[in-house]
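Side project, low priority. Logging it here so it doesn't get lost.
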Amino acid sequence: MKIEELIQAKFKDDYHKAIVNVRYTSNWIGNFYNHQLLEFDITFPQLNILRILRGAKGKLSVKVVKERMLEKSPNTTRLIDKLIDKELVERTRCESDRRVVYISIAEKGLKVLSEIDQVFDDQALNGNLTKEEAKSLSDLLDKLRG
């Protein structure tokens, strides 16, 4: 369905329409993933943290995790605390600077990510776009950010 039909709006030009469409679609994708993740009892930002840690193949400082997150959030520490409570992430303090906190993905976190990977892998786009269209979309979004 077209964006103007979804939100029943008229746009001053195609640039305005594109920005509104990007924002709306971003929210739609977030809602899609959050709904899919309910059975795993994690949110999309928590999934993002787990994927960052899995990709790091070791420990990262909380600061680095915050920098790499898709959605910057002042709640990152709280999100990490919830992952620690669920035993998906482990926390250690830096020996030389006690202000620095490192986190790493736990074995249980790797297992949960493996289960999530089996259930869905970017399903939000798979059924609606071809690989070529997905590449074009990604290229255009990169171009938009300059």
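Brief comment: Helices lie at 3-6, 14-37, 44-56, 62-68, 76-85, 107-119, 123-126, 131-145.
Revisit when time allows.
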